[in-house]
Amino acid sequence: QVRFVESGGGLVQPGGSLSLSCAASGFSFQSIGMSWYRQVPGKGRELVAGISYRPGVMTYADSVKGRFTISRDNDRNVVALQMMSLRPEDTAVYYCNAGYVDPIYSADWGQGTQVTVSS
């Protein structure tokens, strides 16, 4: 079955960096776009970044452009999110899913990984 396992979150000071990783399984990873989303309590999930199956095609939320970088490893079925210059407003639970922008498996979210940016 479809499965997403996110890791790499933690507590970081403002201005710091974190690298998230998502291991995906149960579908044809190399043929599908992948995206990262985040959610804070009381709000819906929002798109952070997406990467197409086509090389070099990516999109980012305006709030993270220039600070976050999404990448994928089709040999390992992993999508990563490198986060730099973190801000308190980046605090959220981060999730990945298949799909470029819109999640394909919206009923199959992983447990997510908590990112907390605080001094």
Helicity level, as a percent range?
Answer: under 10%
Q: Which percent band covers the strand fraction?
A: over 45%
Question: Over the alpha carbons, how many angstroms does the gyration radius reach?
Answer: 13 Å
| Element-by-element helix/strand order | EEEEEEEEEE
Structural class of the secondary structure composition? mainly beta
What is the strand tally?
A: 10
Low-confidence stretches: none
Distance between the amino and carboxyl termini: 40 Å
Shape: globular
Q: How would you write the strand order of the largest sheet?
A: 2-10-9-4-5-6
For this structure, the quaternary state is single chain
Largest sheet: 6 strands, mixed
How would you describe this structure to a colleague?
With 119 residues, the protein is mainly beta. The chain has no helices and ten strands. The strands form two sheets. A six-stranded mixed β-sheet has the order 2-10-9-4-5-6, with no helix packed on it. A four-stranded antiparallel β-sheet has the order 1-3-8-7, with no helix packed on it. Strand 7 and strand 8 form a beta hairpin.
Could you give the topology of this structure?
Layout: E1 3-7, E2 10-12, E3 18-25, E4 34-39, E5 46-51, E6 58-60, E7 68-73, E8 78-83, E9 92-98, E10 113-117
Parallel strand pairs: 2-10
Antiparallel strand pairs: 1-3, 3-8, 4-5, 4-9, 5-6, 7-8, 9-10
Summarize the structure.
The chain is an all-beta fold and 119 residues long. The protein contains no helices and 10 strands.
